[in-house]
Amino acid sequence: MLGNVDWMTMKLSQNEKEVLLRLARQGLESAAHRRPLPDLDLSQLPQALQQPGASFVTLTKHEKLRGCIGTLSPDVALAQDVLQHGQDAAFDYRFSPVRPEELDDIHIEVSVLTQPQPLRYDTPEDLLDRLHPGRHGVVLRSGRQRATFLPQVWEKVPDKEEFLGMLCRKALLPADAWKQQAIEIDVYHVIQFEE
User: Fold this and answer.
1) pLDDT digits (tens, 9 = 90+) for 155-169
2) Model pTM?
3) Which of 6, 14, 56, 84 lies in disulfide reach of 111, CB 3.0 to 4.6 Å?
4) In a 10 Å sphere around its CB, with 0-12 CB exposed, 13-18 middle and 19+ buried, how is residue 119 labelled?
5) Which residues make up the CATH 3.30.1490.150 domain(s) of the chain?
6) CATH fit for domain 117-189, picks 3.30.1490.150, 3.90.1150.10, 3.30.230.10, 3.40.50.2300
């Protein structure tokens, strides 16, 4: 299962990446035109894309975020997951829905995730030591509150404390919650590719 393999061995061929980008684009176009998703015949796709996988689809317009939706859990075939998230990203609640006239200006990035693994730590300082900017995607949980940042977020927020503070706020927690209370942290890796 893609979601459970070691991140160092998880690979996708150039053809498989291109297929996933096309599927994400189909999902986006279906959303913009308010059409249902196209039927997907998994048997016609490469074997790796038929396996359960977890992905995020990120949309940018003129290099600014326009939508980003995904899952941490490999519950459906990777191809189906990417197609669905291509559609869902067009309706990201943080933005107005994507309109057909925007499609030519929207750039798609796909991130295929490994299964998140708990990051054990004892103190806030220990947590900072164990995080690897640019490499770790991070899931932060406190009770029912949860949020994640893909590894790509480190490019814009390289400071570990600021990164964790922003992630806390995304989870609707105080920015310093990662220092003050029992926070569970999982980390994951991604294969990231774009149009």
Assistant:
1) 999 999 999 999 999
2) 0.89
3) 56
4) middle
5) 117-189
6) 3.30.1490.150
